[in-house]
Fold this sequence. Notes:
Distance between the termini: 20 Å
Structural class: alpha/beta
Order of helices and strands: HEHEHEHE
Mean pLDDT: 82
CATH class: Alpha Beta
Strand order of the largest sheet: 2-1-3-4
CATH superfamily: Response regulator
Low-confidence stretches: none
Radius of gyration: 14 Å
Number of helices: 4
Number of domains: 1
Amino acid sequence: MKKQIVVLSVCAMLFALCVSVEAQQGKRVPRIGYLLSGSPSTNPDFREAFRQGLQDLGYVEGKNILIEYKWAEGKLERMPELAEELVQLKVDIILAPNSGIARTAKKATTIIPIVIATVAIWMTS
């Protein structure tokens, strides 16, 4: 349920960005920058839930929305470089899976919105 809330929040922001981008620039396809500390094999379920949430709202990766993945492959010292690459690609929004990565992205840009997609689960006994 919390994953769905995160996905819907990000999708709502993308929809708002997409409307203003189309009004200003025509048929430009919105781009999401996805900054990750792991590798493509890390947490595929979250990425698939994200893609499915986008698709539920009419966004199909590679068709009417692009996702630029940047993987640090466990080398956290690469995160600033990867964040800068997303800025150079002129993504419309940066998705960060936690606050540490979001802080790194914030150092690379003051213009591109950054969304933190952290899901916390509290268990009570």
